[in-house]
Each structure stands twice: as structure tokens, then as C-alpha cells.
Amino acid sequence: MRFFPFSASASIIAAGILFIVVNHAIVMSGAVTIEIGSNPSPGIGWIEGVCYAPIIDARVGDELEFDLTAHNVFKLPSKWEFETCEFDAATLLAEAASGKFIYTITEEDARQGDVYLACGVGSHCLANQKIKIAVTSDGNDLVERPTPKSTYVLGLSSKDCLKLQYSTNEVSSGGGSDSIDADSDCTDPVMLDDGGYHVSCLSPPATLTPGGVIWDARIMHYPFPKDRRVRNGLRVWEFVEGDPEEDGFSGLTPSALNRLYIHHLSGAVVFGQGSEGSRRNNTDTEFPKPYGQVTGDEGDLMIFHVIDLRDVDEWLECIECRCKDTDGTYLDLGGVNCCSNCTTTAPEPETIDYRMRYNVTYYEIEEDKPVEQVIWLTADQSPSLGKNIEYDVPLFDSIPQDQQLVSSDGQKMQRLERVGPFNEIFQQGYFQNDYDGPETVKILRCVGHLHVGGVAMYLEDTVTGKTICAETARYGTDPNKNEGLLIGVDVNNYEEPIEIPSDRVVRLITDYDASELHTGVMAITFLFIATGEEITRDMTPLTVDMCLQEACDPSVLPSFDAMKIPQDSTDVCIDELADHPMCKFGGLCICEDVINSPESTGCNGVYTSTFGDIPINSVCNASCGCPTLPDEIPIQAVTTSKSTCLDTLVEFPACKFGGICDCEEFVNAPTSTGCGGVYNSTWGEVENNDVCAAYCDACPDEILTNEETVDMTDTIIEMIESQLSNACQFATDDCKFLLSNLYTCADIADDTEVDPVMIVVRDYGQQIALEYAKLGEPILHVGEEDQEVASCGKGAIICEDTLPSNPACLFGSLCECEEFVNAPESTGCGGVYASDFGDIQVNDVCAAYCDACPDENTGNAYVPGADIDDSSITESMRTGCENRLSKSPACRFGKLCDCEDFATDPMSSGCGGVYTSRFGDTSVDEMCPSYCGVCHLQASSPRMHSLLLATALLFFSTLMQL
């Protein structure tokens, strides 16, 4: 959920209607929600390479919210496990890629005093992805306190981070992203001959001595426009060393790979990989048109894992992060969890600042040339060994026989294979979510990530036998720069995409040299595929311009049945073991084996593993007989005083449409069975106590506690946000309409609202709309003020001179409209300015100066008396053409939802007539305009008025001639 209400709330059912009551005072529990990694704003979330300051003064009931992508959450039992990242006794709280996870502070946590949480993926814990929460247990919950924050700091060593993690003082966020970002900069965009733009940037420095290791996050200067999406071109990176000259960019020397080894990079400012991606121009280049990656979702964060190899003798052991015994001797295992500073022979270690230089090009999306979106997927070979990301390659004789492979030239290798459906092996982004792409996969590029020792990777179609990807490793031979180091992995680019079904069974193959030991290696394949979604120029803004409509359309808001809320987990009863780490990484994929395992207590029990206790029914529900759970959450009534028990008949169709607004008349009507009974209508039965609770003395007898209450506020907000998330990835017309309607509904709603959705919309709708109008990565909107929302068609169009953002100003320094309009190259207002960039419409960039503002009622430059063309009458000018019966009480309460049935019902006089019920007459045409063929033309603009006037004059003129 991107938006969070800042106040406690309770859900109330009074007289059969759900009310949302918001309590703005301090509640008894004082509970708050703390979003991990949210300070400084807009937050960094839960990632490795960041130092998390301790959370001070947490209390029982407080909620810690994690946003999980490629990370999980473990609870560690003590300070020792927290410091050493020992997970043997840890409890798995939430798995990776499980979305939002909330951990609630318990009484047991308060007794313990401190809570220790960490990520157990790979060695992320050792990369400081852990957090300590100090829980106050004095029981004085009524004492007001500042809301605890989760602050992160970038650029700290593990030693300094540990000091911070045990600090008892409030940590300022000033040492975080601002200070790191201050040392990152980019040149101004330079226009290229092909119409693209080139930008060169430098990252903040990474300061190292010989043998030193850095694994942390860096805030990079964002090289692309922040107000709109553009199409990516070529992106190339390398590491450089030295001190930049006065211009901030020159005077730097490229770092040789045998001086600075790039273990791996994570992030999306540029495409990462490791040493094999440095200075490569085919790994991250533009795609053949119409395909392309667009900017806006990558953020400005990169994680560096680099090692200074100067004067390091055992360089292979160093870059493979071999583990050591207590005497400092390297062992036969390793990985990033053992990545510490390496031994060096340098007599006087020299400190060097290393920076990443990244050069990018980008292109504006052209008006008539939409881009078909490209996304990337990831597959990992290590699960074939029950591992995650990293694994070790033993000597050849120690490898199982079915993994041994000897090449034609005698090279001894370990071959691993992973076979399965494409949509199960590959995940979205960097192991973020399960595959959710098109059914037909169109593959445009294959990129591999290997370590030293890697020979090749392949992706095969098991049906056709064809090789989809073939990625062969290449090694350096220059003893002064890169001898023995991995310098490249072949990239497969396809002008015409390779197409396969998303459920096609594929084989992922990896070959590693086994003539010597290799530890902590990786074998990851990245695929770039087309989604089939076209992105047009008008979809590129990163802020959606909302407007205040004349009326709210509540039917567009999510529907919500307050009396029955299905449990998400009980809709379908299936076994989900195949998608669980027990199967993916542990090879335990049969429910019968899990249920009957010695580590299991059987159905309705748990399976005890090194990752913690796993509820059996959560992975083997079907095999356990689908234990029944209530199919709805019982919603109890909550009353704060007798006044909350009201008669709500006036809000019911019987009153609104039938004129029966008095409970005495309603309850005692011939069609009613009295209090405790029902009122029989043509639209179905109505529970009398629901609408006349006070009259029937059917109010709740006692005030229930919050534990007996279901709080619907967050549920409704999540429904609204889900709708907006699906519609607002790009600035589409649908997105603008939904946001504008939500903002409008919130604007007109008042304290008389009884509908639960409208109550939440009233209280939070405008804040949600303003938040979701900011598209893409939140970091791009830092410092932005919320837009001013004006009425649709009136004042919503801002008329201003935009010359300062035009290339004539950006690159030609011609920034004043008076000078621009009167220049020799210009034909003046209403004309064009002839430039090297092409003709520029003067009125487009100097609208205010030329008094060429659009008409405020239409948003178009309207010229009275302009030629009128019948083709200007479009469907958007037609209103009333959609049947609205589904939104009427006849459908909602009487189940009469088909226009043909409605118009031909015995109670109806048909199209042009009315439907007669005890609640009054309803116009058939109004409910079924399309069915009845009574759509009407709406004069929606001055141009439309002119069209109608011209038609009338033509008719009158013809009549006079006759």
C-alpha cells in the first residue's frame, strides 16, 4: 500500500450500515505503523548494502512494515546471532517476494527488550540488512511520544554500521542519501545527430586501500529527465580512479580489472552484472524498433560489491570470498558471507578513490511512433543444487558423476541443468516476483552473469531442441590489466525476437571449470522480452494532470460488500509446495514426504527447518483435506454511545424511490412482517432491523473491544490502490479519469455519508489521488509540491511560455520570448522559428507572450467561425449511451439486471415508459438508454455549440427559401 492513513480507525455497524469512524486522538494502545527504511523520504525500503539505525521506543502493538521483493525477514533470538548473522536458531517470518509484510510487536518482545530482524537471503545480513528494535515495556501507553522512525544511512563500513546499530540516540537522516548523492554528478544533456541525447556521469567515490572490500549502496545522480519517460539508448559503464579536475569529470584514469575487481553490481540506473559488463556496448544498448525500455522506474540507487586487488597475492581466493579458519587459512568453501578484506603485501597502503563513470543516451518517444515495452527476467542455476544465488564448484573428482563433463579438448567441467516451464524458472526483474508476462514470450536479448571459472551458459527449448541463448565466457590475457580474469560473456541480441509459449519446458545449462576449486560462484541468466504493451508519447508524463469534475461517479469506485469479506487464502484449496523454498531450494517437493517427515508434526502442524517453523497447511492444504475455515469475516458491531444506533431508512431505496421514509409506516406496512422480520418488495426482501434499528430497539447491547472489530479502512484503501495500481503505470486516459473521479468524489463527500467506500474516499481520497498521480519511482518526485487541481476545462489549462524548456533555450541560450519571436529566424507570433533542430511553432513555446492561450472551456485553441465538419462529432460527445441498470436498486436489490427483462417486465410499460414499483416509478429510458436507442448528442464545447447553431441556421435558411 503506497498510502497510509495516519490515524487509528474503527469500523462500525450501526443499524445494518457499516460506518467508518476515524479517531484522531491518541488511542489507548498508542500503536503506530513504522515503515522500514522510510527516513529520509521517500525511503529506500528493505535492501542489502544499507545501514539501518535502531528503532527507538517501539511499543507493544506497533507494526513494522517491510516491502519484500528479493528479500525475506527472519527473527533472530539474541544479540549474538544479530552480530554474527547466524540463522540456525532463527525463525522465518516472511518469505522473499511476498509483498508487504507486517510484524506486530508482542508482549513477549517487550519482556525481551530488543527485537532483532534480518534478511536471510545469501549473505545480505552481513551486508548490514538487519535492524534492531528497542521495545519499551514500562506499560505507560498513554504517554504521548514522537512516532518512531526507521532511518537508513548509506556509505558506512560494517564496523561503523555496527556502532550505529547499537546507538541509543535518535539518528539524523542527514548523513544518508543527501551526503552520498552530493558527490555524484552528470553533465548537461548533449544532443546527438540522430536526435538522441548523451549524458556522462560519475558516482560517489568508493575509498579503498589494497585488499579492501566494499559492499554497500550508493545514490547516483539520475541521468534521465524526471518529468517524463524516455526510451533508453546505449548505457556503458566503467570504474575510474583519481581526483577529478575542476570541471568535475576529466583527469580520471580507467581502473584495470586486476586493480579493482567488480564482483557484482545491483540496480537499474545502468544494467549491472559484474566484471564481464564493464565497458561493453552490446549488453545494455537500444533494442530494434519498435521495441524499447523506457525510463522512470529505475530509481537512483546502485549497490557496489568491489574488491581492491592491489598487492594481493592470493587473488583468486580473494575474489571468490573464500572462508578462513581461525588461523587465517583459506578453506574449501566461500561466498559473499565470507567477503572480508584480503591479505596484502603492500608496505604502505595507498588510499584510492574509485568512481563508476556511466554514460547514457536516451530518446524522446515520437508522436507517431509508439514504443513496445521491454522488461527483463532473471533465472538462477543454483536451485539445481538446492542453493540460492551462490554455490561452490568442487574439484572434478569430487563432483557427482552425472554432473561431470569433459570437453573435446580435455577440459574438466561441472555441468548443471535446471529443467522446467519457462514461467516457473524465470522471475520478473531481479528475482522480484513470479512471471506475469505475456503468454507468448518474445525474447530480444540474452545476458549472462558468471564468475571466474565459468565456461558457458545455455538456454534450450526442450520441444524443438533449439538453443535460445548461448553465452560463452571470455578471459583476459594482459598481465598488466586482466590476465586470468573474466572480461566478457557473450550477449545474444535478436533483430527478430525468438518466440516461445510461456509454459514451454526449457533447459538451463551451466558449465564451470572443475580443474581447480571455485567458491561462491554465480550463474544467472537475464532475458529481455517484449510485453506487447505500446507506450505512446502522451503516456510518458510522470505526473498525471488531474482535474475536478462537475460530478462524482461513485460507480467507478471499487464496490465493497461490508457484510461479507472473503478470506483470500480460502478461495482455492491447492497445494503450494512447488512454489515454496522447501521445493525450489531444498528439493522437498512432494506433500506426502513433507507431512510424514520426522521434522514434521503432520497436517495442522509445522515442519521444522533451518529457516524456522513452516505451517504444513500453508504449503499442503489440499493434501491435508482442505480444512474448512469461515468463508467470511464476522463483522461485529461497535458502538461508542447510544447515539450511534440510528434508523437509516432515509438512505434506503424504500425512501429514496418509494417515498416510505418513516419507520413506523415501513415496519407496519402490509408487506412487512414487523420488527425482526422483513419487508417484501419487488426488489427483494429487506431486513427491518437493518434499516429501523432504533425504532425496533435492535441496537447492540454492549460496547465491544477493538479486538472484536474488523477495521475496514485499510481494506478499502487497498481496494482503491489496487485499482489505481493496475490503471496507472503510465499516464493513460483511464488513469487520469480514475484519479480525477477519486479526487472529485473526495471533494464533494461530506459528513452525511454512510457508504463505507465514500467515507474512506472522503477522508483519504484526495491524498491517495495526489500520491498516485506521481508515476514511476518515488525518488524522482522528491521535493515536488502536490499539483493544484483545477476544474476540468476551466482553469485546468495553464497558459505559460515554455521556451525555457525548449532546445532553443537549452542548447541555443535563446530563452526570452521577445527576443525569440522577433529574431531574424522567426516569422513572429503565429509563425515558426527556423532552427537547426527544425521549425518550432512560435505559439507553442510563447503562448502567453503571443496571446495564443487555449480556450479555457475546451482546452483547445477555438477560432469562432472555423470550418465545421461532421466528423468532429465523436463518441466522446455522446452521453447517455451506456445502460445503467446494473447500478440501479432494481438490479442491486431486486436482481433485475438485464435491460430486456427490465423493459418487458409486467411492471414496466417498456421503452419510453416507466417501471412501476412500490418504491415509485423509474424511467426505463434512463436506466437502459442504449437498449432503448435513446442516446443523445451533447453540445460539450463552444465548437459543438457552433455546430448545432450552424445546423439550425441551415435548417431555417432552407425553410425560408421554401
UniProtKB/TrEMBL annotation:
From the UniProt record, which GO molecular function terms apply? Answer: electron transfer activity
Q: Which residues form the Phytocyanin domain?
A: 32-137
Q: Where is the composition biased (Basic and acidic residues)?
A: 277-287
Matching entries from Gene3D superfamilies are given as: Cupredoxins - blue copper proteins
What the entry lists under InterPro entries is as follows: Cupredoxin (IPR008972), Phytocyanin_dom (IPR003245), Stress_up-reg_Nod19 (IPR011692)
Q: Which Pfam families match?
A: SURNod19
Q: Where is this region: Disordered?
A: 273-292
Source superkingdom: Eukaryota
Extract the PROSITE patterns matched here: PHYTOCYANIN
Q: What's the protein called, per UniProt?
A: Copper binding protein
Say which species the protein is native to.
Fragilariopsis cylindrus CCMP1102
